[in-house]
Amino acid sequence: MRIAIDLYACQTGSHLRGIGRYVKDWSLAMAGTTPADDQAFYLANGTLDQDFERVRRFLTPHVSPGQLKPYFHPAHLGQFQSGTRYREASALITQAYSLLDPDWLVVPSWMEGFGHPGLVPDLDNLPNSTRKAAILYDLIPLIFEAQYLPKHLQSFRDFYLKRLESLRELDLYLALSEATKRDAVTYLGLDPARIHVIYAGVSNQFQPRFYSEPEALRMGQHLGISKPFIFYVGNVDYRKNMHGAIQAFAKLPSPLRRSHQLVLNAVAEPHTFIRQLEQLGLNRDQVVLTGHISDTELVFLYNRCSVFFLP
C-alpha cells in the first residue's frame, strides 16, 4: 500500500499550536511504524521555502531519501482561497499527489490555509483509485457559530463552510475523540462507519522529571514565577475559557491566592486580560502570562505545578 501524507499544517501558524504539534508527532509515529511492505510519502509546500526547511529538518532523520516531496504553486494566492491563482495552485498540488500514485492520501488538517500563502487543495481531479482521508479535531466553529462565524467575518465564514462541504466528500475520517465523531455525525451527517476514533497521542518528552531546587528556581524566575503555582494551558480563544480560569482563581480562599500564582500559558497580549484582573481584585504578581514557550519550559511547568486544570 502506498500512502501520501500532506504536512502543510506544519508550515502554517498551526505549527506553533496544538494541531501543528499533533501533525508533526503523528507523522513521525507513522514514519516509525509503517510496515515494510507499505510505502509512505510525505509532502510539503516547497513554495514556502523556509517553512519547508523546518519540515525537512524534523522529518528527514526518520525517513529514507526521496520520501519527502515538495510541491510548488504560484505565490501570492490571496487570503480568501478563491480565484484563478487558487484554482491553478489547487490543480498543481493535486497533480503532485497523483504522481505518487497513492492508494491513500491523508490530509492531517483539512481547515488550513486561511490568511496564509498556501492551501489545502480541492481534490476533484484526484484519480478515483486514490482514497482520501483527513484527521478530524473538532467542529467548534460550527457548533459555536455565533462566536466563530459571525456575519462581520464573512470571508472566514465562507472559507470554513466551503471547506466543510468538501470534507464531506472524503472516504475516511480519523477523529481524535468519540465526541468529535458524534459531532461529525450530528452536524455533518457523516456515516459513522467511515469515522474511526484514533485519539491523541502524547509525545514521549512529557514525562515526570526531577528538578533540583537551584534549577527549578532559575527556570521559574525566567518565566516570572516566584511561588507554587496553578497551571493553565490555552489562549484567549473562546473555547479555551481563559477568562473562566482567571475567575476560578479569583474565587479561591485568600490564603491560597496569597501562596500561589496562576500561570497562564497563553500566547496573548496582556491588555486582553488586565482589565479582568482589576475587576476581580487581582494584580499582575498573582497571574503570570508566559507567552510562547519552549518545549523544555512546558515540560518544566507540567512537572512543577501544584495543579494543572483546564476549565
Quick overview:
This protein has twelve helices and eleven strands. It has 311 residues and is an alpha/beta fold.
What do these coordinates show?
- By secondary structure, the protein is α/β, with parallel strands linked by helices.
- It has two domains: 2-197, Rossmann fold, CATH 3.40.50; 213-308, Rossmann fold.
- It is built from twelve helices and eleven strands.
- It has helices at 18-33, 49-59, 84-99, 140-143, 145-148, 154-167, 178-188, 213-223, 242-250, 254-259, 271-279, 295-304, and strands at residues 2-6, 39-45, 68-71, 104-107, 131-136, 172-175, 195-197, 229-233, 261-265, 287-289, 307-308.
- The strands form two sheets. A seven-stranded parallel sheet has the order 3-2-1-4-5-6-7, sandwiched between helices.
- Strand 1, helix 1 and strand 2 (39-45) form a beta-alpha-beta unit.
- The chain is globular.
- The two termini are 43 Å apart.
- The model has no long low-confidence stretch (mean pLDDT 92).
Averaged pLDDT, please?
A: 92
Structural class: alpha/beta
Task: Please report which band the strand proportion falls in: under 5%, 5-15%, 15-25%, 25-35%, 35-45% or over 45%.
Answer: 15-25%
Oligomer: single chain
User: What does the largest sheet look like?
Assistant: 7 strands, parallel
Q: Can you identify the CATH class of the largest domain?
A: Alpha Beta
Q: What percent of residues adopt helix (DSSP H or I)?
A: 25-40%
From the alpha-carbon coordinates, what is the Rg to the nearest angstrom? 22 Å
CATH topology of the largest domain: Rossmann fold
Number of helices: 12
Cα end-to-end separation: 43 Å
Count the beta strands: 11
Secondary-structure arrangement, i.e. CATH architecture of the largest domain: 3-Layer(aba) Sandwich
How would the global form be characterised? Answer: globular
